[in-house]
Design brief:
The longest helix is centred in the first third of the chain and has 22 residues. It is built from twelve helices and 13 strands. It starts with a strand and ends in a 14-residue tail after the last helix. It is globular, with a radius of gyration of 19 Å. Helix 4 runs parallel beside helix 5 and helix 9 crosses helix 10. The protein is 40% helix and 13% strand. The protein is α/β, with parallel strands linked by helices and 348 residues long.
Length: 348
């Protein structure tokens, strides 16, 4: 059975005939949803079913960026309010036990939301360590500026997803917190020395290296490879992500259409796989771009497909928690301090 190592987006709230035919021909491993694809719960469920019907394999990944705060594709009135990572970090700063519990509860509750829609992968937690003066593309999406705090809350957030039968994606490996530009629009370059990067930026990923899926950063780390961002750098992926950090799970790239990457889409695809990515991601649903990406795709690598199989086993591991009880606890804990979530819209 053919499965292509690609995750595609789509343009609207239903699939066009052209999109259906394209997906049937390419057989992508997965799909990703954005705000443009979301209206009501019934509509999202129907769209997810349409996507799944276009491929012949059963283990279809359906992704979303549902972090909380400004990065939320599912919003009121149909879905609950959820906090930014920074707000959860504020709770943690006041009371470590409460902050860790809120991190787990929020993810567990979001997993309830996602599973009802047929979504089985959430691109969180953000493990990036921001520094003063960095671009706010990460900003309040980070739990803290402290490595230990990020690692602890990130682990609880990831575990909440796993306990709900949803795959978390640790991002943006090996660290996007020092970026002075938005990688959606430009290529960040980090000049920090390697020992500092190991002690800070890389450390949360090292502590959560057993997680099943990670997303790369479109960031150049001059101390490791001054010529290519992590996504397309074999040196960064081999020496830092796989060896130093010790991550052996499924490695997916960040969006191929972001302006941090250079070259046409064929070159971006080929460079990402040559560097060591297992799966690539294309988000905007532009058909001409998707066709260029599809034309450049290789077959699934044997090791990459093993990582897919290892990751998707978590989909059947949901714990039998009572949703109403957990929602009541979440509300009670969140109201026990003066922190509030940030409802600002996200970049994408």
């Amino acid at each position: 059975m053919r499965i292509s190592p690609i995750i595609f987006g789509c343009k609207s709230t239903r699939l066009s005939d052209e999109e259906k035919a394209f997906y049937r021909a390419v057989q992508p491993w997965g799909f990703i949803l954005f705000s443009r694809n979301v209206d009501t719960p019934d509509q999202v469920s129907a769209l997810v079913e349409e996507m799944k019907s276009c491929v012949d394999h059963d283990d279809v990944a359906v992704l979303v960026d549902q972090e909380g705060g400004r990065v939320r594709r599912l919003r009121p009135p149909h879905w609950a309010e959820y906090h930014s990572a920074e707000v959860i970090g504020g709770h943690y700063k006041q009371d470590k036990t409460r902050g860790k519990r809120i991190a787990w509860l929020q993810s567990r509750l979001m997993a309830f939301d996602l599973v009802k829609l047929g979504i089985n992968v959430d691109c969180l937690p953000v493990l990036d360590v921001p520094v003063p003066g960095a671009h706010d593309v990460i900003g309040d999406r980070a739990y803290s500026q402290d490595v230990n705090s990020i690692s602890e809350m990130g682990r609880d957030a990831a575990q909440g997803m796993l306990d709900g039968g949803v795959l978390p994606v640790i991002k943006h490996i090996p660290g996007h917190g020092r970026s002075m530009v938005d990688s959606h629009l430009d290529l960040p370059r980090v000049e920090t020395d390697l020992e500092t990067l190991k002690a800070t930026d890389f450390e949360p990923f090292k502590r959560l290296a057993e997680m099943p899926v990670a997303m790369t950063a479109h960031v150049i780390y001059e101390a490791v490879d001054a010529s290519a961002p992590a996504t397309t750098s074999k040196t960064v992926i081999d020496d830092i992500i796989r060896n130093y950090i010790g991550f052996d799970g499924l490695l997916m790239c960040d969006d191929l259409s972001m302006k941090a990457l250079s070259g046409d889409f064929s070159e971006r695809v080929q460079s990402s796989f040559a560097a060591g990515c297992d799966v690539v991601l294309h988000c905007n649903g532009e058909m001409e771009e998707m066709r260029q990406v599809a034309d450049a795709l290789p077959e699934f690598g044997e090791k990459a497909f093993e990582r897919v199989q290892q990751a998707t086993r978590y989909w059947s591991s949901a714990s039998h928690d009572d949703e109403a009880t957990l929602r009541e606890e979440f509300q009670r804990l969140c109201q026990s301090s003066d922190y509030n979530h940030d409802p600002t819209e996200a970049h994408l």
